Amino acid sequence: PADTPDPSQARARSAPAPITDVAKLCVCDLLVAQCDVNCCCDPDCSADDFSLFTTCSVPVVTGDSQLCSQKAAVYSLDVEANPPERIFKLIDQVNPSIFCIHAANYKQALYLKSPEIPTPENFDRLLDKFGGATFNAEPDSWNLDPDAQNPPDANETYRYEYGAPVQTEEAFLRLPSPVVSSWCSDANPAGFLVNQATKCIRSVSVENCDSIQALSMLFYINSSILASVFQVNITVQSIVVQSLDGMRTLLSTSDVLRLPMVLDGLCINAVLGVNYHITHTDTGEIIEAAAAFVLGAISKEALSIEQSFEISFTQENTQPVPLSGNPGYVVGLPVRAGFWPQGYPFPAGFSSNKHSQLTILQSTSTQDCLAAQGARAPVLFGYNMISGCKLRITAAMKCQPLAQTLLDVLKGQSFPEYVASFGNSQAQDVLDWVPITQLHISEQMISNTLQSSCQIPVSLGIEVKWTKYGSLVNPQARIVNVTATITTTTLKQLPSGRERIIPVTSSVVFTDISSPAEPSYKAWPTINIKLPFDFFYPFV
């Protein structure tokens, strides 16, 4: 009959009833129809077998340890009895944890379903279901509504983790890079949240440039990125045309694709560079993708060209800022800094300064502090730095304006309040930002006359304490404390017509406060005792 089920499907869907009674569970019962030694829950063992046992290999048998309350089978041996006998007790066991399961009502999860055996009748169906690179491992019988017609992968959501390849319809988002040599390899996938910049050499032929896929814009945008329930198309953000002499021109429109073609012995509209920009949510879903192209002309004498590729990631509703590591700081990259936003009575986020960097005074060739006002140099992680200038003081200078001018020279117009503990700390993660502790130290006065003295800042010292965070195999640099110390000195009023030159300095010192790694072993203790003279008898 037509409604007769397939015997192979019947075998696949029929499964033994799950055993939930702990009195019938026995994890040490390995031999079929034979008594396992010291297995007190083995139903094949008799009283004579139990009398020969020395212990119970499994004294307690329970079900799911995450249940709030359950039965437990306790097995023991009464060795004082003659002959020894097994003692069995069934007790109630309570889970002390507040995070426990009250009842397990999903019975199908209590056992594994037998896989369907391939037959000539169901082979094509199984091949369609399991023949691809990925498939849904959940059995069809687990569907609560078997009559619902849901298309495959309709509810599939692509939430990416750090470093996972960005998937597309065909395979993955390509980011060509040199592998063994400097030649381009298109098999390099773009990793999620991994900002990369690569350059490689591509072999070209002007006569056939219109047939080389890697020179066409379509090669980099014709495949959509797999995201949530929809697919994200890669849009063209901008197109820059580069001439043979290197001059670049930004096109006013990027709606029209420019494909490579041969014109007057030149290959025009060839892709020289691609810059991807991916926007994602805080849960790892890609919501937008754009590409900026650099197109150029290739002369017929050229046998190869250099292509550059770059990809960056930005979380939605956040301003893109350059990172200094992922996650830990990289030596030589700027220390990221920011301010506490005004109007927030509670930690809500941070606003960055113009360059999102911690800066110090930049030395100039003239060494004039007043001329150097506004010139700043970024503080690079791991680099101890010192800079300075000279200030010419005359009797006509007022104390308060001079002190404020020197403070602006040392700290800049907007000295940050916080620094990022990691190189990739986001502004909304307030716990990832370390406050800058500001100290003021006064030097000894050079005059005992307080009435004619003036306090002016002469140096700014920044100490950055950092530690190695994470595993010993791949430690990440993390900033834990920043101290900015302003040192002031007291100057007396200069006589009319007199001048004085004082040095003004800025410095940055990085201090590693990482704790030394503890050894994985402990030394044996020293035993200070005297052994008997015949302790090793009969050996010497």
Automatic annotation (TrEMBL):
GO terms for biological process: cilium assembly; protein localization to ciliary transition zone. Residues 16-122 form the Tectonic-1-3 N-terminal domain. InterPro entries: TCTN1-3, TCTN1-3_dom, TCTN1-3_N. Residues 159-315, 325-512 form the Tectonic-1-3 domain. GO terms for cellular component: MKS complex. It comes from the Eukaryota. It holds the Pfam family DUF1619_N. Keywords: Cilium biogenesis/degradation, Glycoprotein, Signal. PANTHER family: TECTONIC FAMILY MEMBER, TECTONIC-1. Belongs to the tectonic family. Part of the tectonic-like complex (also named B9 complex). This is TECT1 protein. It comes from Oreocharis arfaki (tit berrypecker). The gene is Tctn1.
